[in-house]
């Protein structure tokens, strides 16, 4: 009967399949070989299928055994995850961390921090929300996330800010775009005949303000990937994080524009911040993520 199946039988089955023999499985599990054979025999009787062909020198998985092995692996993974999550609950570890992320923050740095978090808290799920400008703070205030990474410094007594890094941005256009053909400072009059590709701000906090918008003719897009694609296609020009366009600048697909309203070489700098609710202290995994993120920043000092 299937109700009699035990996790131990399944682990024995998996160990025999992975090690290649009953003897090797017995050594790995620190049991006598007869106990391994007995466990497999009982499992086969309960499942009413032969899991191993024992006619040769070494036991070989039968077609039925190979099929059921995949199910057993999946089940044991879920059981281990359940145990890890239950252990985490006992220690007050979060089930999930949601971070509202401004898309201009360098994703490689985020990835390094998440790699550390995954090793330390493998049972904690991680979720990101793409939230430009004030949308990160809106998500935080409305309880839609645990942490926010933003490129603006809205002051709110309910939110604690921590400076992360400055992100360099540059005004660029495709190499064949008319604006790319001059090295003279580009003022409003020269930009007026060309479309500026700008990011849409969905936030009520900052949606009425334009950041870095200097051209009267503009197209709005929802994300930097679309923005970059349109600029590369020659539709218009715009400002993008340098970390996102290093290869295109190096290969000559994109050219910096000397926009007069920006700094030298059309560059602007945005200070980014890590934010969380004052009334909701970070749990163990959230604290570990914060420390890993700070440690992953350029020229970061070890977190003490």
Structural summary, described in words:
The protein has 304 residues and is α/β, with parallel strands linked by helices. The protein folds into three domains: 2-90, Winged helix-like DNA-binding domain superfamily/Winged helix DNA-binding domain (Arc Repressor Mutant, subunit A, Orthogonal Bundle); 96-164 and 272-296, Periplasmic binding protein-like II (D-Maltodextrin-Binding Protein, domain 2, 3-Layer(aba) Sandwich), CATH 3.40.190.10; 165-269, 3-Layer(aba) Sandwich (D-Maltodextrin-Binding Protein, domain 2), CATH 3.40.190.290. 40% of the residues lie in helices and 20% in strands. The protein has ten helices and eleven strands. Strands 3, 4, 5, 6, 9, 10 and 11 form a seven-stranded mixed beta sheet that branches. It has a two-stranded antiparallel ribbon with strand order 1-2. A hairpin with a 6-residue loop joins β1 (52-53) and β2 (60-61). α1 packs across α4 (63-90). The longest helix is centred in the N-terminal third of the chain and has 28 residues, at 63-90. The two termini are 56 Å apart. The relative contact order is 0.14. The mean pLDDT is 86. It comes from Paracoccus alcaliphilus. GO terms for molecular function: DNA-binding transcription factor activity; transcription cis-regulatory region binding. Keywords: DNA-binding, Transcription, Transcription regulation.
Beta-strand content: 15-25%
Mean pLDDT reading: 86
If you consult CATH, what is the topology of the largest domain?
A: D-Maltodextrin-Binding Protein, domain 2
Biggest sheet: strands, sense, closure? Answer: 7 strands, mixed
Q: Ranges with pLDDT <50 over ≥5 residues? A: none
The helix/strand class is alpha/beta
Q: So what's the overall shape?
A: elongated
Give me the strand/helix succession: HHHEEHEHEHEEHEEHEHEEH
Radius of gyration: 28 Å
Kindly report how far apart the N and C termini lie: 56 Å
CATH hierarchy: architecture of the largest domain? 3-Layer(aba) Sandwich
DSSP E strands, number: 11
What's the helix count? 10
The portion of residues assigned to helices is 25-40%
| CATH C-level label of the largest domain | Alpha Beta
What is the count of distinct domains?
Answer: 3
Domain HTH lysR-type: 5-62
GO molecular function, one term: DNA-binding transcription factor activity
Protein name: DNA-binding transcriptional regulator, LysR family
Keywords: DNA-binding, Transcription, Transcription regulation
């Amino acid at each position: 009967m299937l109700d009699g199946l035990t996790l131990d039988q399944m682990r024995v089955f998996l160990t025999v399949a992975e090690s290649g023999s009953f003897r090797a499985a017995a050594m790995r599990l620190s049991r006598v070989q007869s106990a391994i054979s007995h466990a497999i025999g009982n499992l086969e009787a309960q499942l009413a299928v032969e899991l191993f062909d024992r006619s040769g020198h070494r036991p070989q998985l039968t077609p039925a055994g190979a099929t059921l092995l995949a199910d057993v692996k999946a089940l044991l993974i879920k059981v281990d995850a359940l145990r890890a999550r239950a252990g985490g609950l006992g220690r007050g570890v979060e089930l999930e961390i949601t971070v509202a992320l401004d898309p201009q923050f360098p994703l490689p740095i985020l990835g390094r921090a998440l790699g550390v978090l995954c090793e330390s808290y493998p049972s904690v799920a991680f979720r990101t929300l793409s939230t430009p400008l004030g949308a990160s703070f809106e998500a935080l205030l409305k309880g839609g996330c645990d942490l926010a990474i933003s490129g603006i410094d809205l002051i709110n007594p309910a939110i604690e800010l921590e400076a992360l890094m400055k992100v360099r941005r540059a005004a660029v256009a495709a190499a064949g775009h008319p604006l790319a053909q001059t090295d003279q400072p580009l003022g409003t009059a020269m930009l007026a005949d060309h479309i500026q590709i700008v990011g849409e701000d969905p936030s009520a906090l900052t949606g009425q303000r334009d950041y870095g918008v200097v051209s009267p003719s503009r197209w709005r897009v929802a994300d930097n990937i679309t923005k970059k694609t349109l600029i590369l296609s020659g539709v218009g020009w715009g400002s993008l994080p340098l970390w996102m366009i290093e290869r295109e600048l190096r290969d000559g697909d994109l050219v910096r524009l000397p926009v007069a309203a920006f700094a030298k070489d059309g560059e602007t700098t945005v200070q980014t911040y890590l934010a969380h609710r004052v009334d909701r202290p970070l749990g163990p995994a959230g604290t570990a993520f914060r420390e890993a993120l700070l440690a992953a920043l350029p020229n970061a000092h070890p977190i003490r």
